[in-house]
Amino acid sequence: MTLDQARVNRIFLPGTYADGVPYELLRELRAEAPVRWVEEPPVGNWPAGPGYWAVLRHADVKYVLRTPDVFSSHLGATQIRDPDTAADLDFARTMMLNQDPPDHSRLRRIVAGAFTPRALGELSAAIEDHARTLVADARKDGAADFVQLAADLPVRTLAWIMGVPEQDRQLLVDWANRVIGYQDADYAHARSADPAHLTDIGRAAVAHRPTTMTTPDGRPVNPRSRAALADMFAYAHALAEAPRPGSVLARMRDGGLSTEEFETTFFLFAVAGNETVRNALPGGLYTLLGHPEQYRLLRERPELTASAVEEMLRYWPPVVDFRRTAARDTELGGTAIRRGDKVVVYHASANRDETVFADPDAFDIARTPNDHVSFGYGPHFCLGAQLARVQMRALLRRVVTELPELRLDGAPVRLVSNFQNGLKHLPIRWARGV
After folding, report:
1. Cα angle at 152 between 130 and 185, to 5 degrees?
2. Residue 299 pLDDT
3. Are 343 and 64 in contact (CB under 8 A)?
4. Beta bridge pairs of residue 36
């Protein structure tokens, strides 16, 4: 029986994800129509959109991601929701994430130095040390919100890469929450950084924070627009006046970027560099604790940590979907797609494709091979993927081996988002003094 369009539209609605990724619906869609039209009904104050093609099979997702000449990141940017104005779209197009080769390749080369094997080697020791300290400090308490515990690691790592002073790290959290969690009332207006504890440039930047996120006609301001992030960009420019030598900010300053490219590249580091680990690690631990036999296996065989991280990424992808725009009339999965149509690839669906993964709904920390697409594919494969893996392995190993009898201590609270697959809270408890 053909799926009702209203049921299909659930994969777009942010509220769906408050209860979890709709894997059963995605499975039904893969079986019935792996490239399926999805409507964009209005959500709260957000207006309706024109609709898009959802791409659900692993092979088709990979094809879309590796053919930017057919499915462009640049034409309409990479979020399902269209930018509000032509000016917003022009600004979004200056971001590396929203470009196609060769412009994308140029920007990627400028910042890639932060992720060389040598740079990762230097960071790895600091990451291991901080993971050790985080777990040692938490151990005596016997309980924690793992989302808060885990969030400190990527923020600290990101701050070091970018040269952000310790006092200003909480600004990175606020900016990420506002951009990624704009569909969630708890995150949309994040203001957790205390100005009294910020540096001078941090306090000056906060003064540029928008006082309202609503336009005069009552519509929400796009959280990724230049106006919505005036405080972040003010901070970026001030910090770049004297960047730490060797930091990615120094590379950006010296790389010949335009003002807009500089701002959007800072945006990309400040948000994506934070959220990937902050979503994947709590989600991965929640999954692990929900599979006690796999938790026991990992405790007995910590050498499986690397493959456990890959399975966590497959089973709990930090990003649900990404958008492209058809650059010409084409066909995908037997479906005709017209130039200008939105095309949205669902990483969450591709990672459960039964034609690629044996028993895809099973969580198996020893799974191999594991061809998940949680870091993307093709020219936009995540530049920080290896750094994210280093962080996840370091903290997971410490948590599993040094917090005995680890268990949930209440219900997790999910992020309301049709883009990010995250938790806002994950209460955990362990045995003290063991």
Report:
1. 170
2. 97
3. yes
4. 54
According to DSSP, residue 72 is labeled E
Amino acid at 367: R
Rounded CA separation 391/385 (Å): 10
Cα distances (angstroms) measured from residue 317 to each of 18, 27, 55, 57 = 15, 16, 16, 15
> Shortest CA distance to 33 belongs to which of 8, 61, 70?
8
* Contact present, 321 and 421 (Cβ < 8 Å): no
> Which residues are bridge partners to 256 per DSSP?
none
Q: What is the C-alpha to C-alpha distance for residues 83 and 89, in angstroms, rounded to an integer?
A: 5
Q: For strands 427-429 and 407-408, give the pairing.
A: antiparallel
pTM of the entire predicted model: 0.94
pLDDT digits (tens, 9 = 90+) for 4-31: 999 999 999 999 999 999 999 999 999 9
Distance, CA of 180 to chain centre: 8
Q: By C-alpha distance, which of 356, 387, 180 is closest to 270?
A: 180
pLDDT, one tens digit per residue, over 192-245 is 899 999 999 999 999 998 877 777 777 777 788 888 899 999 999 999 998 888
Q: CA 78 to CA 73: how far, in whole Å?
A: 6
CA 71 from chain centre, in angstroms, equals 21
- The strand pair at 143-145 and 427-429 is best described as antiparallel
Q: Is 54 helix (H, G, I), strand (E, B) or coil?
A: strand
Q: Which two tokens stand for residue 392?
A: 């996840």
Burial 363-378 (b: 16+ CB within 10 A, else e): bbbebeebebbbbbbe
DSSP 132-187: HHHHHHHHTTSEEEHHHHHHHHHHHHHHHHHT--GGGHHHHHHHHHHHHTTTSTTT
Per the listing, tokens 């280093």 go with: 390
- Asked whether the beta carbons of 427 and 145 are under 8 A apart, the reply is yes
> Which residues are CB-neighbours of 299 under 8 A, at least 6 positions away?
400, 401
* Structure confidence at residue 433 as a pLDDT band (50, 70, 90): low
- Amino acid of residue 120: L
What average pLDDT score do residues 161-179 get?
91
Query: Average pLDDT, stretch 51-67?
Result: 98
